[in-house]
TrEMBL record:
This is Dipeptide epimerase. Residues 380-423 are annotated as: Disordered. One of its GO terms (molecular function) is metal ion binding. It is an enzyme of class 5 (isomerase). Mg(2+) binds at D202, E230, D255. Binds 1 Mg(2+) ion per subunit. Residues 399-417 have a biased composition (Low complexity). It comes from Brachybacterium alimentarium. The active site is at K175, K279. Belongs to the mandelate racemase/muconate lactonizing enzyme family.
Length: 423
C-alpha cells in the first residue's frame, strides 16, 4: 500500500465553480508557550471549494508568521488572488487541480494547503467516501496521539502533565528552551509527576550539534524515558544534524529541515535523521505530504504527521493522511484540544490517547460557518493555574540560520521560514 488513491478515483473530473474564504480568531483554553513565542488565540482562514454539483469542501490555514512566513492577511490575499485564479472555473482531476494550486505562486504553503485540503474534501464528498479510503487507508485504523506540555515553570508543567495523564494521555511532548539547567528542572518535575509516561522532546532548533550531543547523552544517562528528540539543531545544518543522529542512542527527528520531497531525499540519503515530521502547512497540502511519505517508505524511514497550532479542519485532514500512509507511524495532532471551541463537529474522536477518524464523506466534518469564532471578536485571554494574568509574553526569537529558501508570502521579510521555531 503506497498511500496513493486508486486510478479509478484519480480520473474523476471535478468542475470548480467557486472558491471562497472566511477568517476566524479562536481563543485557546490556556496560553501556549514556546521558547519563541506565547499564543493566546489563533488567527486562521477557512478556504471553501464548491463543485458544479453543489458539493462544498473546506480546508484551513493558521497564521504562522515565524514558521511559514504567512499571516492571516497574506493567506487571505493568496486565496483571493492567484490561488482562486488557478482553479475557479476550471475542470480537472484531483491531481491536475492540486498541481495548479501548487504552481500558482511561490511560497504560501499554508494558504496552498488550505485550498488543496478543501479540494480533497470536496472530491471525497462527491464520491461519497471518507478521504482516508481514497488515499489508500482504512477508516478503522487509529494512531496514538501525544499532548504537548508548553514551556512554563517546572511546577506548572508538572501540573499540566498530571492533568494530561489523568485524562488518558500516554505520550507527552515537552517543549525545551535555551537554558539547559532550567530544562533539566522542567523534565525532572514532569517525570516525578508522571513517572510512567513516554516523552518526546522538541528543541525547536535550539542547540548546536556538540551541545545537542552532550544534552541528549545527559538526559539518557539520567534515565529519562525519551522516545525521540525533534530538530535539535538549525534546519539548514544538515551535517550537524547527521552528527547528532550518529552520536546518540535515541531517534532524532527532522522537522523544520523537511518541507518537500527534495528535503526528504537529502535527509534520508545522508542519514541525517532517523525520523521525519510531515506538516501540511509546510508541504502545501496532501500531495506534497504523500511525496515525502513515499520517499521515507522507500528508505525504510518512519514518519510523524504533526501540525502547527491549527484548527480542527487542518488537524482532521492531517489525520486522514496519517492513517492512510504506511510510512506514517506517529502523530502529534493535539492542537484542537487547546482550542476553546471544538467546531466544526465531527472528524475524529480520541480516547486514552488513541486518535481515530469518525467516518463520513470527505473529512467527515460539518461545514464551519463564517460566523463561528469571528476574526473581529474581542477575546478575553484565559490564564491557567500557575500563570498570572499579568505574565509577560516570551520575546520572539528572530530567525538566525537562513538556508537561502525565500518565502515571498512573508510580510516580515524573514529570509527563510525554516529558521523560525516550530510549534
Amino acid at each position: 500500500m503506497s498511500g496513493q488513491p486508486g486510478p479509478e478515483h484519480l480520473d474523476e473530473p471535478l468542475v470548480v465553480v467557486a472558491v471562497r474564504r472566511h477568517r476566524h480568531r479562536a481563543p485557546l483554553l490556556r496560553p501556549f508557550v514556546t521558547a519563541a513565542r506565547r499564543t493566546e488565540a489563533v488567527e486562521y482562514v477557512v478556504a471553501e471549494v464548491e463543485l458544479a454539483d453543489g458539493t462544498i469542501g473546506q480546508g484551513s490555514a493558521a497564521e504562522t508568521v515565524a514558521i511559514t512566513g504567512e499571516s492571516a492577511d497574506t493567506i487571505e490575499a493568496a486565496l483571493e488572488g492567484p490561488l482562486r485564479a488557478a482553479i475557479q472555473g476550471r475542470t480537472g482531476t484531483i491531481v491536475e487541480l492540486s498541481a495548479r494550486v501548487a504552481g500558482a505562486l511561490e511560497g504560501s504553503t499554508s494558504a496552498k494547503a488550505a485550498l488543496e485540503i478543501a479540494l480533497h474534501d470536496a472530491w471525497a464528498k462527491a464520491l461519497d467516501a471518507p478521504l482516508v479510503e481514497l488515499l489508500g487507508g482504512r477508516l478503522t485504523d487509529g494512531l496514538l496521539n501525544d499532548m504537548t506540555i508548553s514551556l512554563e515553570d517546572p511546577e506548572v508543567m508538572a501540573g499540566h502533565a498530571r492533568e494530561a495523564v489523568a485524562g488518558g494521555e500516554q505520550i507527552l511532548k515537552i517543549k525545551l528552551g535555551h537554558d539547559i539547567s532550567e530544562d533539566r528542572e522542567r523534565l525532572a518535575a514532569v517525570v516525578a509527576a508522571v513517572p510512567d509516561v513516554r516523552l518526546r522532546l522538541d528543541a525547536n532548533q535550539g542547540w548546536g550539534p556538540e551541545q545537542a550531543i552532550d544534552i541528549i547523552t545527559g538526559f539518557l544517562a539520567d534515565g529519562l524515558p525519551i522516545d525521540l528528540v525533534e530538530q535539535p539543531v538549525a534546519a539548514a545544518n544538515i551535517e550537524g544534524l547527521a552528527r547528532v543522529t550518529a552520536a546518540v542512542d535515541v531517534p532524532i527527528m527532522a522537522d523544520e529541515a523537511v518541507w518537500n520531497a527534495e528535503d526528504a531525499h537529502r535527509l534520508v540519503e545522508s542519514g541525517a535523521a532517523d525520523l521525519l515530521n510531515i506538516k501540511l502547512a509546510k508541504t502545501g497540502g496532501l500531495r506534497g505530504a504523500l511525496e515525502i511519505a513515499d520517499v521515507a517508505q522507500k528508505a525504510g524511514v518512519e514518519c510523524m504527521v504533526g501540525a502547527m497550532m491549527e484548527p480542527r479542519i487542518s488537524i482532521t485532514a492531517a489525520a486522514h493522511l496519517a492513517v492512510a500512509h504506511p510510512a506514517i507511524t506517529m502523530i502529534d495532532l493535539d492542537p484542537p484540544f487547546w482550542f476553546a471551541s471544538d467546531e466544526p463537529a465531527g472528524g475524529y474522536t480520541q480516547e486514552n490517547g488513541w486518535f481515530r477518524l469518525a467516518g463520513g464523506p470527505g473529512l467527515g466534518l460539518e461545514l464551519l460557518a463564517a460566523d463561528v469564532d469571528p476574526a473581529d471578536a474581542d477575546l478575553v485571554p484565559t490564564h491557567p493555574v500557575g500563570l498570572s494574568a499579568g505574565a509577560e509574553p516570551s520575546a520572539a526569537v528572530e530567525p538566525s540560520d537562513p538556508s537561502g529558501h525565500s518565502n515571498p508570502s512573508n510580510p516580515s521579510n524573514l529570509s527563510d521560514p525554516r529558521a523560525g521555531g516550530g510549534r
